[in-house]
Amino acid sequence: MMNILIIAAIFILLDWYAFQATRLLVTDFSSNTRLTIYSVYWAISLVALIGFIFYNLGGKNVLSDGQRTFLFGWIFVNYASKFFGSVVLIIDDVVRLGQWAYAQFSTNDVVDNGNTSENISRSEFLATASVVATVVPALGLSYGIASVAHDYRVHRVRVPMKGLPSAFEGLRIAQLSDIHSGSFFNRKAVQHGIEIVLSEKPDLIFFTGDLVNNKATEVEDYLPIFSKLSAPLGVFSILGNHDYGDYTSWPSRQVKQVNLANLKEAHRLMGWKLMLDQNKILEIDNHRLAILGVENWGTGGFAQYGNLEKAYRGVDDADTRILLSHDPSHWDAQVRPNHSDIELTLSGHTHGGQVGIEWGNLRWSFVQYRYKQWAGLYQENNQQLYVNRGFGYIGYPGRLGIRPEIAILELTSA
Q1: Are residues 143 and 235 in the same domain?
Q2: Same domain as 176, residue 310
Q3: What whole-number distance in Å separates Cα of residue 69 and Cα of residue 60?
Q4: What are phi and psi of 185, to 5 degrees?
Q5: Which value, in Å, is the radius of gyration of the alpha carbons in the chain?
Q6: What is the pTM (predicted TM-score) of this model?
Q7: Are residues 238 and 377 in the same domain?
Q8: What is the pLDDT of residues 37-77, one digit of tens each?
Q9: 48-70 core/surface letters (b: 16 or more CB in 10 A; e: else)
Q10: How many structural domains comprise the chain?
Q11: Cβ(317)–Cβ(158) under 8 Å?
Q12: Which domain holds residue 298?
């Protein structure tokens, strides 16, 4: 409760800061117009604030998946945009405080009382800059929800592998990750994404974790859609950190265990082979391709349920090994140091940050400051890691600059 009150207080402070800029810009408007603008401003803010408190005091348990997504989106866009706008005003306040402190100890008889025409102009400029810094992110983030959240992009990547048997040359793998079905609000768009996967006619399909946000019930409405995924060599999947139900409250430990069992059953019902620290050998023209799948294992406070050694048993004599591991931090922490013969690892987890820039060779997202490998293909010696940007989204119910991904990986000889 205390954390909720602290965050709510921060939100009120953001509302107040952003309102100062709005109030200054409409000073010359008629009283009725000002009243209308003020009413709209505080109505939007009040809905967001009440929604935040309601959501965190149990409301998330009575809302549908779509309602939760809409409410969280409203809250996120409202306060994320006001944060950017308030930064302008906060910086100005800090500068003014510094000037005032300097004036107290300075022998120069120079005092900025804020009453000159120059200062008035400066205040108006800052107010305008603050409003622009608020409106632009708000429009961008709203666009990311309305138009980009399900704008799937196919990333076709050739993966050169040293010593690849000719039997595996040109093998096409479709990788999906981070579906987060509890966040979806457009069933038809999700179905279209699956149709895109099938149109690529992959030989293998891999799903690298986070089918839901918290509960197995989130995927129930999408079972008929995801069960359409099929490939000649099979569909293989693993669990991600969100699949265990660790981020929500349960009446008892037994209820949580039943939820996990139901989620595993969902994989079976869809025809996906769920890999729980296991491996599967596929033989193609007398050559052995080993598929390893581990439960979630991540650094930085994330759960470490996976057992790589258990998944590895019996694959040391395979011609090629592909590991499915949800969290890319696993690659540097355990995979590369302990198993240099795992040629390719497929991960997800990062979502590419959901918001960022990918334009030619320019790539940036805030998530890169947390993860060394956060999107695309990486190589160290003869080992490679592909980090999928994710099919869905969580938290912010959209994407901006980092679009949802369907990866088509083609194995080739190095």
Answers
A1: no
A2: yes
A3: 10
A4: -135, 5
A5: 26
A6: 0.85
A7: yes
A8: 999 999 989 999 999 998 888 777 777 777 888 888 888 89
A9: bbebbeebeeebbeebebeebbb
A10: 2
A11: no
A12: 153-413
